[in-house]
């Protein structure tokens, strides 16, 4: 599948007369550039017109009293046109060309991505009706967003099934019994006490969103996601979370540049960037790993149009029509002000990596996006309603914290305060890291014989708990934290012993590579469930099958009061259970080849329901989850 | 009137013969079937009471406990000892909510057990149970059992359909009925309220959950299932524009428009110069809707051949096909649409035909009789005159026997169209006539007509003989051959198998309780090899009456029967959808899918099962209240085993091949 064109239009802006038709066309972007040729204005207008016709036709069949439709999918023989309607009168339309490739992405993924692109726009700029100079903003946001996907379609499937719920937040789950922390030393109580309720930042820091984002061998689908946030009335939690996940899925890392919106693909990433093909590292391969890392980093710099040289980026424009400037010239004058955390961290023996990714600690010469990221958010209990909040990003190993600050909170511009804040966060997250996320502890855990996804509706969004690994989560041989690009960067030395280097921002940092290697080794044993051992293509097949099961369930005509359960047994060993209730969806996947005789015997009880027949381990898990 | 010399000037004249100038020939063969015929082997009508269903197979311990019926005295007494009070309230509330006939069941039991007349059937059943007397009148061997033994007798008994307190059995007390599991199937789907085609009123089209539109490439409406002409015309323009746009600009055809939240699906079938569109919110797959459209298109072709169609539109692209079609065509289209949308019609869903169960030897005799007659009358109908011969019952669209040339078979769609055609003629009150109808079988040859001689054998049973020829003047030859064939079948005493004694009230199929599979409400079994399916007779529970009346007996409540059929169709559609992709391909070669619908507040639990293998497909519904997966699976295994064991009876293998 490949993208053909993307368009945004608003029929209400079409004036009388055919010459004013173009007024309704807010954005029209064709992918592939000159290679594919471009359409004339008439062709563009006719495409938009026929989509409008389709909506008109379908709307007339919608019964009275039923809320108007927001998304429609038009399937042709070799093309799918996905359309969504939002804010009552705006339409987005994405055309995708079908192909017969085995790994063709189902259009449901594109549809979710379409919604996400809108939600991310709202995060950055606000709702369409509220944005001044809408057209340039649309160009600035949507064109690079979809171009990234065009150049790197794997973005769509890296998140796996969780992408199917664009209103959902993937939650991280941990075995609480392993935390070993008592209430008084609990990691989140530190944040609550010393950050949220601290008299300096009280009401200034509105919320902290704590994410656990392990990548590579440490990837664990169960513990991946939002660990927790601290306010209960943040309506846009799902959008912020999905934005973070999207960045990670798109670029493989979250760096300052990525967060600031200055990283985009300009060409198809080469195979060496393919994070799934490499073999696990070992000590004898160190040299090649270093070489590949260097090459990889260089390529990445290029692909992300990172401004290492002024000449490269200063002239890079997305084109006159897009109005996008990705100029990064000021970076050449950058002098880092933030020191590596390893030198000042609370426990330098661990050499853990932490620090700010977006903060005012950066040079004043940098664009504002590097200092604070402004996001349009709405706290239900805030009298000001939806408005721009300053957000800072801080990380510790695989943990990312988004700090949402009130726009009037001036303390964030105080370097000392930020250092204190960083220190407090490091204390807390280290505790989280050591007690809950300790890799060695996780290794001891028994490999689960089933995987699950549970989607529950909450007040503002859906929560997604899942242990089904996403497609393409096996990262490359060289394990890298997803959050260390900003300080990891190019190595100046290829020696095994050197623990010093320059980060992407020019800062000198220190790391303990031996520790890193140890992590790699242990992390390989972190396959928490049987699906993580599955080959990539088989995992993809399984995900497609689950998608079809869900699609079929979605078509069910049952009355809303009824619960529908399905238990599907395929001859390839897949045992899939799906239950849909009014506010909850449960998916459980097992391999029935692996079920032992006792389990099968327990299935044979004539009294056992569909769910109980999945085995005692599943029932025990469910009871635990319910309590 | 068709001339005896067989000179039909053109197709138009043929069409007039079909619709209005039917051949009136005295039907002399109709009465012969009931004289001196042997007892119908396939009749399993053992009465209308619960008691008769409790006849248990001998030598099969499992079946004694798991039989789907529920009336033998020992069983009732056993159940009487169980405490199932808690469940009674649940079932009663369920019955109330869904309008089930559980009260009627109660009355029926009371009446049967209290009667002082001739030996009550329950007593007979007890005798049967006690003495292990084999059931001779049942056509099928009921000793089939492939499932495992029940692990707990009490559990299994408690899962019987009806569990009654002892006081109920003795008839001395009007104690509460306490069914643990009800053989009623509640409706868990949203359904259309009316079973009519609305082409006259001004009611908005958006009130319909399903609609079919056929328009020409010029945007002229040809047919709409719902909606007046004025309403349809405006849509025709938009549909035509949309379809043409993609055809011209993208060199592609639009297949579907799907709305996620409202569940709307529009499916398009572009058959230049005709465009067909289906609209539905019932959750069908794209493949299902396209099959339905193809079925309607095939009907159009059966009436106007493809060649004729292109010719008409090539002369004038804005030709109004409605002026060419006849009133009966629109009636037939209405009938087909109703059949597709509001009836139990697995034929399209499974792309298979239903065959009439007959003993292998009986069916072989029928086929032999046809072949012998054919060879004996070779002077009357030289080779090539008869293409296909069919004996069929249109009551449930069942095929009884087929004669065909070697190496040629009729496509399922063609046969389905033929069934509909015959049924329409039967229902239009023409059952005493014979017909000579030109009909195009689009899957056989979409460019030309074949000619069908249709002779109705029994208006009650709606059975008919159809002889198909490629020669348009072969009517009298085929009629004579048909007469002689019928006489031979009478003389061979085979007609009772084709037209069961007792007409419509006699059963020519089987009931679900004839199969030793416990707690099964209904099922559909398809043999992939023979592209045929079987299902038990539909037992519709007429509200307030005997729940075991069959369809014909419950004709006093046609609305109820239709609603029940629609309900079953919805269940089967959902079960089928659970094992196929949107394009109709199976998700896996072998697959087992359990589906359970439940409503905690209403105490409803319906378990269905879809089992697909390279050999067969089984779709099965358990009775309300069955919650165990294993119960469903065990029953499914028994159904499969039973069907495979009786494969020779249930399906037509090759037919009579000449």
UniProtKB/TrEMBL annotation, chain A:
Pfam families reported in the protein's UniProt record: Intu_longin_1, Intu_longin_3
Compositional bias annotation for Polar residues: 277-287
Domain CCZ1/INTU/HPS4 third Longin: 493-604
Signal peptide range: none
Domain CCZ1/INTU/HSP4 first Longin per the UniProt entry, residue ranges: 3-126
Location of region: Disordered: 266-287
Superkingdom of origin: Eukaryota
Any one annotated GO CC term: Mon1-Ccz1 complex
UniProt GO molecular function: guanyl-nucleotide exchange factor activity; phosphatidylinositol-3-phosphate binding; phosphatidylinositol-5-phosphate binding; phosphatidylserine binding
Matches recorded under InterPro entries: Ccz1, CCZ1/INTU/HSP4_longin_1, CCZ1/INTU/HSP4_longin_3
Listed Basic and acidic residues bias regions: 266-276
GO biological process terms on file: autophagosome maturation; cytoplasm to vacuole targeting by the Cvt pathway; late endosome to vacuole transport via multivesicular body sorting pathway; protein targeting to vacuolar membrane; vesicle docking
Coiled-coil segments on the chain, per record: none
Entry similarity comment: Belongs to the CCZ1 family.
Identification of the protein by name: CCZ1/INTU/HSP4 first Longin domain-containing protein
Organism: Huiozyma naganishii (strain ATCC MYA-139 / BCRC 22969 / CBS 8797 / KCTC 17520 / NBRC 10181 / NCYC 3082 / Yp74L-3)
Automatic annotation (TrEMBL), chain B:
GO CC term (a single one): fungal-type vacuole membrane
Protein's membrane topology: Peripheral membrane protein
Subcellular location, record wording: Endosome, Multivesicular body membrane; Prevacuolar compartment membrane; Vacuole membrane
Domain FUZ/MON1/HPS1 third Longin: 520-647
Span list, region Disordered: 1-20
Domain FUZ/MON1/HPS1 first Longin intervals: 210-328
Protein name: Vacuolar fusion protein MON1
């Amino acid at each position: 599948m490949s993208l053909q064109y993307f368009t945004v239009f608003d029929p209400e802006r079409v004036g009388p007369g055919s010459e004013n038709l173009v007024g309704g066309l807010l954005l029209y972007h064709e992918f592939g550039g000159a290679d594919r040729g471009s359409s004339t204005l008439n062709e563009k207008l006719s495409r938009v017109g026929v989509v409008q016709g389709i909506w008109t036709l379908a709307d007339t069949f919608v019964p009275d009293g039923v809320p108007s439709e927001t998304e429609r999918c038009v399937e042709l023989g070799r093309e799918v046109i996905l359309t969504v309607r939002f804010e009552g009168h705006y339409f987005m339309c994405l055309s995708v060309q079908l192909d017969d490739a085995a790994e063709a992405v189902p259009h449901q993924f594109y549809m979710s991505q379409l919604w996400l692109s809108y939600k991310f726009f709202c995060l950055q700029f606000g709702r369409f009706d509220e944005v001044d100079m809408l057209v340039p903003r649309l160009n600035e946001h949507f064109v690079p967003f979809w171009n990234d996907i065009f150049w790197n379609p794997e973005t769509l499937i890296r998140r796996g099934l969780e992408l199917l719920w664009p209103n959902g937040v993937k939650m991280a789950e941990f075995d609480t019994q392993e935390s070993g922390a008592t209430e008084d030393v609990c990691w989140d109580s530190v944040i609550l006490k010393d950050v949220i309720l601290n008299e300096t930042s009280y009401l200034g820091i509105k919320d902290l969103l704590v994410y656990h984002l392990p990548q590579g061998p440490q990837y664990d689908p169960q513990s991946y996601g939002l660990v927790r946030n601290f306010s209960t009335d943040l309506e846009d939690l799902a959008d912020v979370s999905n934005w973070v996940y999207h960045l990670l899925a798109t670029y493989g890392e979250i760096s300052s540049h990525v967060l600031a919106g200055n990283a985009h693909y300009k060409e198809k990433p080469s195979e060496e960037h393919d994070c799934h093909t490499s073999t696990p590292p070992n000590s004898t391969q160190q040299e090649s790993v270093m070489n590949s890392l260097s090459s990889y980093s260089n390529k990445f710099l290029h692909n992300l149009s990172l401004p290492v040289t002024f000449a490269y980026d200063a002239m890079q424009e997305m084109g006159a029509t897009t109005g996008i400037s990705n100029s990064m010239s000021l970076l050449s004058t950058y002098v880092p002000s933030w020191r590596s955390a390893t030198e000042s961290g609370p426990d330098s023996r661990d050499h853990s990596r932490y620090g700010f990714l977006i903060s005012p600690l950066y040079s004043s010469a940098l664009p504002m996006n590097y200092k604070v990221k402004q996001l349009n958010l709405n706290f239900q209990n805030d009298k000001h309603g939806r408005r721009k909040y300053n957000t800072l990003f801080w990380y510790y190993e695989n943990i990312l914290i988004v700090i949402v600050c009130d726009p009037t909170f001036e303390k964030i511009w105080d370097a000392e305060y930020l250092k204190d804040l960083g220190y407090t966060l490091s204390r807390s997250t280290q505790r989280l890291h050591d007690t809950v996320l300790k890799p060695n502890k996780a290794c001891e855990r028994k490999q689960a014989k089933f995987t699950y996804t549970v989607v529950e509706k909450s007040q503002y969004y859906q929560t997604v708990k899942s242990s089904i690994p996403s497609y393409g989560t096996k990262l490359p041989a060289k394990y890298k934290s997803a959050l260390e690009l900003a300080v990891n960067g190019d190595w100046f030395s290829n020696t095994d012993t050197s623990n010093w280097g320059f980060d992407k921002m020019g800062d000198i940092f220190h790391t303990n590579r031996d520790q890193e290697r140890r992590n790699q080794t242990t992390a390989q044993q972190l396959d928490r469930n049987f699906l993580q051992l599955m080959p990539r293509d088989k995992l993809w097949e399984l995900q497609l099958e689950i998608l079809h099961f869900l699609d079929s369930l979605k078509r069910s005509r049952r009355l809303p009061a009824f619960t529908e359960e399905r238990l599907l047994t395929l001859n390839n060993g897949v045992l899939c259970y799906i239950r849909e209730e009014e506010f909850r969806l449960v998916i459980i996947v097992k391999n029935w080849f692996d079920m032992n005789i006792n389990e099968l015997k327990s299935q044979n009880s004539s009294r056992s329901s569909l769910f109980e027949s999945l085995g005692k381990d599943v029932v025990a898990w469910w009871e635990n989850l319910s309590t | 009137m068709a001339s005896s010399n067989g000179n039909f000037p053109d197709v138009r004249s043929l069409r007039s013969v079909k619709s209005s100038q039917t051949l009136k020939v005295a039907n002399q063969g109709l009465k012969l079937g009931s004289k001196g015929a042997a007892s119908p082997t396939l009749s399993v009508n053992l009465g209308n009471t619960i008691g008769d269903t409790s006849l248990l197979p001998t030598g099969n311990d499992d079946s004694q406990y798991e039989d789907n019926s529920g009336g033998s005295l020992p069983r009732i007494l056993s159940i009487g000892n169980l405490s199932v009070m808690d469940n009674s309230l649940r079932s009663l509330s369920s019955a109330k909510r869904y309008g089930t006939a559980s009260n009627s069941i109660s009355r029926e039991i009371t009446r049967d057990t209290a009667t002082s007349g001739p030996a009550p059937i329950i007593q007979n059943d007890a005798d049967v149970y006690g003495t292990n007397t084999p059931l001779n009148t049942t056509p099928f061997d009921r000793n089939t059992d492939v499932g495992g033994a029940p692990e707990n007798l009490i559990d299994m008994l408690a899962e019987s359909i009806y569990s009654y307190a002892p006081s109920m059995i003795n008839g001395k007390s009007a104690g509460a009925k306490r069914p643990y599991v009800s053989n009623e199937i509640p409706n868990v789907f949203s359904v259309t309220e009316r079973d009519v085609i609305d082409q006259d009123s001004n009611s908005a089209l958006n009130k319909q959950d399903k609609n079919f539109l056929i328009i020409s490439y010029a945007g002229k409406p040809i047919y709409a299932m719902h909606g007046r002409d004025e309403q349809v015309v405006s849509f025709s323009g938009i549909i035509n524009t949309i379809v043409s746009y993609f055809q011209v600009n993208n060199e592609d055809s639009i297949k579907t428009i799907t709305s996620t939240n409202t569940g709307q699906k529009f499916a398009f079938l572009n058959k230049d110069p005709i465009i067909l569109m289906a609209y539905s919110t019932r959750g069908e797959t794209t493949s299902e809707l396209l099959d339905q459209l193809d079925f309607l298109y095939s009907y159009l072709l059966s009436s106007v051949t493809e060649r004729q169609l292109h010719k008409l539109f090539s002369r004038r692209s804005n030709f109004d096909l409605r002026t060419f079609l006849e009133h009966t065509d629109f009636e037939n289209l209405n009938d087909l649409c109703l059949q597709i949308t509001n009836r139990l019609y697995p034929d399209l869903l499974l792309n298979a035909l239903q065959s009439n169960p007959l003993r292998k030897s009986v069916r072989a005799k029928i086929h032999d009789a046809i072949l012998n007659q054919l060879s004996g009358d070779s002077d009357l109908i030289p080779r090539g005159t008869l293409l296909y011969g069919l004996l069929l019952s249109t009551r449930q669209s069942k095929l009884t026997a087929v004669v065909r040339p070697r190496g040629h078979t009729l496509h399922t769609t063609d046969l389905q169209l033929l069934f509909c055609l015959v049924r329409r003629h039967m229902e239009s009150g023409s059952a005493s006539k014979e017909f000579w109808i030109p009909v195009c079988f689009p899957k056989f040859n979409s460019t030309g007509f074949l000619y069908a001689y249709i002779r109705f054998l029994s208006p009650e049973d709606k059975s008919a003989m159809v002889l198909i020829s490629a020669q348009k003047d072969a009517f009298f030859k085929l009629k004579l051959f048909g007469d002689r064939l019928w006489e031979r079948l009478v003389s061979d005493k085979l007609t009772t198998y084709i037209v069961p004694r007792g007409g419509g009230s006699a059963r020519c199929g089987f009931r679900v309780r004839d199969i030793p599979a416990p707690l099964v409400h209904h099922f559909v079994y398809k043999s992939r090899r023979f592209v045929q399916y079987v299902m038990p007779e539909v037992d519709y529970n007429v509200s307030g009456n005997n729940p075991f009346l069959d369809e014909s007996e419950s004709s006093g409540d046609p609305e109820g029967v239709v609603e029940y059929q629609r309900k079953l169709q919805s269940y089967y559609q959902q079960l089928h959808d659970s094992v196929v992709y949107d394009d109709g391909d199976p998700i896996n070669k072998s697959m087992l899918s359990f589906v359970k619908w439940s409503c905690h507040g209403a105490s409803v639990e319906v378990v269905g099962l879809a089992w697909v293998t390279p050999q067969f497909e089984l779709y099965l519904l358990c009775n309300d209240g069955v919650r165990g997966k294993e119960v469903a699976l065990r029953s499914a295994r028994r159904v499969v085993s039973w069907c495979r064991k009786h494969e020779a009876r249930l399906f037509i293998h090759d037919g009579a091949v000449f």
